Amino acid sequence: MSESDAADDADAESDSGDDARPGREIWIEKYRPQRLDEVYGHDDTVDRLQSYIEGNDLPHLLFAGPAGVGKTTCATAIAREVYGDDWRGNFLELNASDERGIDVVRDRIKNFARASFGGHDYRIIFLDEADSLTDDAQSALRRTMEQFSDNTRFILSCNYSSKIIDPIQSRCAVFRFSPLSDDAVAEQTRDIAETEGIELTDDGLDALVYAANGDMRRAINSLQAAATTGDVVDEDAVYLITSTARPEEIESMVTAAVEGDFTQARSKLDSLLTDTGMAGGDIIDQIHRSVWDFELSDRQAVRLMERVGDADYRITEGANEQVQLEALLASLALDSEE
Ligand SMILES: Nc1ncnc2c1ncn2[C@@H]1O[C@H](COP(=O)(O)OP(=O)(O)OP(=O)(O)O)[C@@H](O)[C@H]1O
User: Fold this and answer.
1) What is the pTM of this model?
2) 142-158: buried (b, 16+ CB within 10 Å) or exposed (e) per residue?
3) Residues 150, 222: one domain?
4) What is the pLDDT of residue 10?
5) Residue 203 belongs to what domain range?
């Protein structure tokens, strides 16, 4: 297994949630906050959620935001706070993209909502990836929500709230989870390294934060994967394990193109794709994140953004990544001749 596979492997294990190998506990589960006040970042969200719980007035909730920022964590923390040790029996977690379809999801919701309650007013159903449901399936879900609204609270999680039909949105309190701040990711990652007795260098921490790009799950998985490769987690270990380019590598490729040296820019691109093993889409993302940090004139930066947008769209539509990236660099090099 290559080292970059090790990071993916940690991701895959996190999905399955268990790892039978002794001594290799998955840190994202080990360090998942159990209470709302342990969640990093999202202070306003946590305050509002706590006041619902304190007022015994929990509405249906819709959590929208990117992966690995704490949506599932907040849902389970709510359940722990509402039910205490009983929480598992009163909390049903389902994935809406379950291949067996919305009917299976509805059946499970019905069975769960009809079961006896052990003294609580309602049970909580957490439906992950709700935006993967078609509009028809969401309409069916809305009816199910109404049918059981006396004794269930739904927490829906999705990447984009715009993909959730209005009748569901209007029945939920909507919370937007942004990517976590670099400070929040750094704090949690440093704490875990300290608890695990790992020597994490300052540049290693910076690299973890950069590679995570606001995704706490990715930061923790990368730390764990990097910690298995040596005694010290430094930036070399992190960039290797995460298949991430150093910001300066991206900058030197773009700068070469902007200065008209297409051959050099192309060879740097080749090295990122082949030696670092990056996907073209990730290179586009990294350029996009750093455009305003490069030493470019406003006009050059705006041009670059425009080209990044074109390449990103075409890659999403299935175009060849290497061709698109080379075309992006070529057009920057041609601009230098104007
Ligand atoms: N805000 C946070 N504070 C502390 N830890 C966090 C936070 N967000 C994520 N984590 C860590 O990352 C792991 C994954 O987070 P979580 O399952 O909550 O992500 P998510 O937002 O639900 O993502 P997805 O949409 O992919 O399901 C958690 O187990 C926890 O260890």
Assistant:
1) 0.84
2) bebbeebeeebbbbbbb
3) no
4) 43
5) 3-32+181-242
